[in-house]
Specification:
Layout lengths: L10 E4 L1 H8 L3 H16 L19 E4 L9 E5 L4 E8 L6 E9 L13
Amino acid sequence: MTDGFMGPPWQMDWRLDALAAFEALPAHVREMVYAARAELVTTKDPYFRGRETDACLPGGMQVMPVRSSQPNGARALFFDDGDGWLKYTFVPRGEDPQIIVEQVFWQGSDPAKEPPAEP
């Protein structure tokens, strides 16, 4: 047990289907997800409430509520300039608060490969 509110770094847990989707992503996309994860677990407020609170995120990342009618509900962290996202919720329990990743999705394309060498 701890005294007072626990702050970052937050714990992160993955639903099994979200983890399987993450592991199926190409390596360069997994690196982008790792960067998004690092931003989430170290931010003071994982819900990014208020105006311009996600301005501190790296370029190509943005956070917004999944449903505007549920301000404390699920959030989507977009990465790769909106080509992918993590859908997550934050459980702010007094003991062991954590972020739960519910879905990972990416619709981008693999980077261009070098043309085959001529014989």
